[in-house]
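Recall from the previous chapter that SMILES is a line notation for molecules. Here it describes NAP.
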Amino acid sequence: MQKTVLVIGASRGLGLGLAKQFSSEGWQVIATVRNSQQADALDQIPRVSLETLDMTDAASVDALAKRLEGTQLDVLFVNAGVAGPQDKPATQATEAEVGQLFFTNAVAPLRLAERLRPAVNPERGVIVFMSSILGSVETGPGMGMSLYGASKAALNHMTRTFVSELGETGLTVLSMHPGWVKTDMGGDQAPLDIETSTRGMVEQVTRAVGHGGHLYLDYQGEPLPW
Ligand SMILES: NC(=O)c1ccc[n+]([C@@H]2O[C@H](COP(=O)([O-])OP(=O)(O)OC[C@H]3O[C@@H](n4cnc5c(N)ncnc54)[C@H](OP(=O)(O)O)[C@@H]3O)[C@@H](O)[C@H]2O)c1
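With both inputs in hand, we obtain:
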């Protein structure tokens, strides 16, 4: 039976790559963009349907949840995220920058997952949150981008709370590190291309089906320290 994935934040970078990779493996893909004018690349991919969503806007999330009523998702992949004020330490970033970073990377993904959870197959579904190795409290500090890393650590923390409150379920939850990848966010120096990272992530998601619980993994399936 054909499987369905919802990729949040698929206009470019890893989200667009995930839409391509899932599609090439025969999945039905629902891909979200903030601006429907930025969907040219997605329009070229077979089996992709488009939705408009700003993950930080509660009304937008609610409207998407209503449009998805009656659709069962095998995978919800919450990929969207921002880098924030990259080169500023916590002492220099403005309150607005910090608020936007933590709301987008840590709070909005969990609110969205709570709202869309009824659409995810409760027996064999997978919910993936795009984390980062920089969010590991053990290994992230000292690797740079400390505020961004802290926002992903907050995402990991909130994801563990989300999982602890799931109760009896067949759902599997992944906190995923895509590797350091050449995208607008990852920059030109990154060693990995989008295709290598997304092929690996889709493989890990496929393997996780039916596993249950919560795993923090990289795109190659290596478990990461919290
Ligand atoms: N690249 C790396 O090396 C790397 C490493 C570790 C983790 N990550 C994580 O991987 C994810 C994707 O990163 P990327 O490198 O592909 O970044 P990117 O090229 O900057 O793309 C970010 C994507 O997120 C979307 N987005 C941002 N804010 C959103 C919002 N409020 N609502 C909906 N969509 C939103 C963007 O949409 P617009 O086009 O509308 O802005 C875009 O599609 C992020 O969570 C990032 O933190 C990346």
